Please model this.
Amino acid sequence: MELKAKAFKYGDDINTDYIISGKYKFKSNDMEVMAVHAMEELDPDYYAKMKPNGGFLVAGTNFGMGSSREQAPLVLIHSSTKAVLAKTFARIFYRNAINTGLPVVECDTDLIDDGDELVLDLTGGVLRDVTKGIDIAIKPLPPVMAQLLADGGLVEHFKKHGGFAL
Amino acid sequence: MSAISGKTIAEKIFSAHSGTDAHAGDIVIADVDFVMGQDGTSPLAIRALQNMGVDAVFDSKKVALVIDHSSPSPIEGVSALHTMMREFGKLTGAKVYDVGCGVCHQLIPENGHVVPGDLMVGCDSHTCTYGALNVFSTGVGSTDGAAAMASGKLWFKVPETMKVTYNGALKPGVFSKDLILYLAGQIGADGATYEAIEFDGPVIDELSVEARMTISNMAIEVGAKAGLMKADAKTLAWFAGRGEKTPNPVGPDADAVYVRELEIDASTIGPQVAKPHAVDNVSLIEEVEGTPIAQGFIGTCTNGRLEDLKIAASILKGRTVHPDVRLIVAAASKQIYLDAMEAGYIQMLVKAGAAVVTPGCGPCVGTHNGVPSDGENVISTANRNFKGRMGNSNSFIYLGSPATVAASVIEGKITDPRKYFEGGEA
Model:
């Protein structure tokens, strides 16, 4: 699977309240409605910037810290975020992203600037910064998670195998 | 890591629940003893179950849904999600704790759904609270929760463990909230990511079970998967009369391998305050004293227990909340609410000027019950102070102990609570 889009760069310790605020997440189960508020606390224009052509959310350390809300990866998916690239991720968000089918990639995001054109080949494990003309090393997913992502998330894995088959 | 080395609490609980000789770093599929969801997360879990084609839970006695985050419902969208939860309860037999019962993290242990030695997951990040009760409990998302509700199993990476030992003794006016805020300030919001923490030492031994829960509750605020403590006589006494399950206490081996060990002298710690907009933005109370506040909040899964209300009432008894300040109080459960009325704490708080709201999460999650106005400062006993957390991005949240909040609402500014305690320094 090859993903191609622009980088939208943000900082460290982005918590799930910033990805989708509690004041919205309780109101609806419809993620298309909620997605317009994605990342609103940090960047009110996130949805407008990301939605038309898709993009990579590029961040620093501890992305997705805080609450267990699965609305966080879901609103990113529904705002056409193709993948999240960060130096490190918080544990629950990382699992939720894989379970819902949002690719998450650990890499040295200091090498990437806002607006860079990126190509991510998840199968081959290659991230290329086309603007800078460099390949960036990415940390491979643990095999269990690679299998879940390959199955299309945990729901699809359960449907396919009738339970855990890891 | 050698297979013959001793085991941590986490390694022992995962070994017992996966039928393997589990060590840190191993991936295991483990049996879970209980699965919980709340009203912000259960609707997505129910949808995930529907998408899986599953219409039953693995054991209706081992699944509960709690309506606490936005309860009673403030708007029709939430009402519809609550209805979805109640219908799921009727369909599957899973227990639904409805409006007024309280916060999930109080209700699950209070009703004996978990006991020492158990492994449980909850669709809420503060599920780590029951680590204080020797339960390996951790927060998961709705889809993981759905998989666990369907199968009674979940996959886990067995975590490495960091050991935090609190030595010395707490000074008057200093509480378990100050101990965990201090740790957050020391190691940061990702200081224990992917790890379990074992909290130990004479200070932990001295704390009540309730006060211990405050510490484990905030393990997630340093990124930890669990915040575990040993079960002692106090723990076992706390569980007496709470359900039919038999506790199976699990302690670490003497030669357990820790990824890191941290020793903290509690005698040197004063009241701590986390400043906006991060839980690890911690300072001594002296540095923020005098900061004007417009609202105080005492409650939540962190500090909404009887002992917390008692401390607040002891300070506010016969005094009044500053005229420019609102004080909101929410007991963590209906039982605590009743006990606090029986003891007279609620009356003392109300007479002092508090507005008591329904047992539940209250204004902590920004849906209702006290959304601050633009530019206002709030002092709260909650566990998070992220921008917008209480429903307004233009307000500022400070976190402290119930004593700090009570002392502050009297004066209308952040106030050192030690002057209300014998031997206090302030």
In short: The mean pLDDT of chain B is 97. The domain at 11-246+256-263 of chain B is CATH 3.30.499.10 (Aconitase; domain 3). Chain B touches chain A through 57 residues (CB under 8 Å).
